Amino acid sequence: MIEIILHATLLALGLIMPLGAQNVFVFQQGAIQSSFWRVLPVVIVASICDTILITLAVTGVSVLVLANEWIELILMSIGVLFLLFMGLVTWRSEVKKVDSEVVVLPIKKQIIYTASISILNPHAILDTIGVIGTSSLQYSGFEKIVFSITCIIVSWIWFGVLALLGRQVGRLDNSGTLMRILNRASALIMWGLAIYLAINLLK
Known about the structure:
Elements: H1 2-16, H2 21-32, H3 36-65, H4 69-92, H5 107-119, H6 122-135, H7 142-169, H8 177-202
Helix pairs in contact: 1-7, 1-8, 2-3, 2-7, 3-5, 3-6, 3-7, 4-6, 4-8
């Protein structure tokens, strides 16, 4: 069970840490809002959207491969290739400076914008279905539930931490150094998970 939790934690972190529209927005709002409570709607909406995507990915992909082992083999192979590719892209990605002039949005606009960049983000959909969904195929029953819940919990914690980091660090270090470090760490995690998934695929 510990191995499942560790697998889900590293997988979720590897996918959620790269700098993207969702992370940038949460980080920036954390940096410019007058208090953490004012950025809380962004954190909650981003977390709920990820929860929906993860749940759909795990349940949907599982149903798809129930009657066909070849589909499972193909999807898991795609997951390995996708992790390797995303690790390379993340490692090479350039980090822009945090914009100190980002407009402070009212709560309603925060919610709408966060939902749009979360649900309508093709990268987020590919991450959840292509990687989390396929990685969940090696588990069933209670183990799959533990895997899914762990991924969801990591997502909620990450967005909260990211907003706090924006609050504490955003105004002091807008050079993008912190995000660059996070991107490199994320790339290493994704490559490691690609190897882990490939080993399970060959068993």
